[in-house]
UniProtKB/TrEMBL annotation:
It holds the Pfam family adh_short. It comes from the Bacteria. Keywords: Oxidoreductase. It comes from Rhizobium sophorae. The keyword Oxidoreductase applies. This is SDR family oxidoreductase. InterPro entries: NAD(P)-bd_dom_sf (IPR036291), Sc_DH/Rdtase_CS (IPR020904), SDR_fam (IPR002347), SDR_oxidoreductase (IPR051911). SUPFAM superfamilies: NAD(P)-binding Rossmann-fold domains (SSF51735). The lineage of its organism: Bacteria, Pseudomonadati, Pseudomonadota, Alphaproteobacteria, Hyphomicrobiales.
Length: 248
């Protein structure tokens, strides 16, 4: 029987590649994004491209009213935000939390009832390798992802009782994604002059990383997480994320 996966944030990057990965393996895919654009994908009757704003309760409710049973939810939608914490407006921090943390929790809460009633289903929350190490100039962003790490670890226990699995996928640094473009405020505006000397070697390291992550790495990690029937919670994705996880 063909299974159905709902993926948030599929307009580019990890989400788009993951949607294509599952489509190529015969799944039904519900690909959501703020501004739906079916032309991003090859035509197939197993794909629906749907509108979703994870920060809007009405948008979430409308989505779940329009779709049927979901076997897997992948919470991938997120915003980037790096820079000196001192320079970050609280409005930006709130936007990061609303999308990266509360948005994930809201999607989980929306899908849990049907999975609990069926005694089956999987939720995959995509976080980041910032949860695996200490990354300067990413304090607020790290907080949003660390929150989901703790949330998922606890949720896995309470939903496990009902046969529902919760998994974490932790991507590393992927230069080919739109992480920088998805930042609400450009990095250059969040780096006061006093931080220049501190930031220089960090920026140089990001410009020439020894290990990186690709979109395909993340799609494959999500595939593995969905098909894992054991108690494994965390799935680092990408060579750099794997190195950080092994060093812990």
């Amino acid at each position: 029987m063909t299974k159905t996966i709902l993926i948030t944030g599929t307009s580019s990057g990890y989400g788009k590649t993951t949607a294509e990965h599952f489509l190529s393996r015969g799944w039904n895919v519900l690909a959501t994004m703020r501004r739906p654009d079916p032309s991003l994908f090859a035509g197939t009757d197993r794909l629906r491209v749907l509108p979703l704003d994870v920060t809007s309760p009405d948008s979430i409710a409308s989505l779940f009213e329009s779709v049927g049973p979901i076997d897997v939810l992948v919470n991938n939608a997120g915003l980037g935000g790096v820079g000196a914490f001192e320079a970050m407006p609280m409005s930006l921090i709130r936007q990061l939390i609303e999308t990266n943390t509360i948005g994930v929790m809201a999607m989980c809460q929306a899908v849990i009832p049907q999975m609990r009633e069926r005694r089956s289903g999987t939720i995959v929350n995509v976080t980041s390798s910032v949860a695996l190490g200490e990354f300067p100039l990413a304090a607020a962003y790290t907080a949003t992802k660390q929150a989901i790490e703790g949330f998922s670890a606890s949720l896995a226990h309470e939903l496990g009782y009902f046969g529902v699995r919760v998994k974490l996928v932790e991507p590393g640094y992927a230069p080919t994604t739109r992480f920088g473009a998805n930042a609400i405020v450009p990095f250059s505006e969040l780096l006061p002059g006093d931080y220049a000397d501190f930031a220089r070697p960090i920026l140089e390291a990001f410009a020439n990383p020894s290990l990186t992550t690709t979109e395909s790495d993340v799609a494959e990690a999500i595939w593995q997480a969905v098909h894992d029937t054991g108690n494994r919670l965390r799935f680092p994705a990408g060579a750099d994320a794997l190195a950080l996880a092994q060093a812990r």
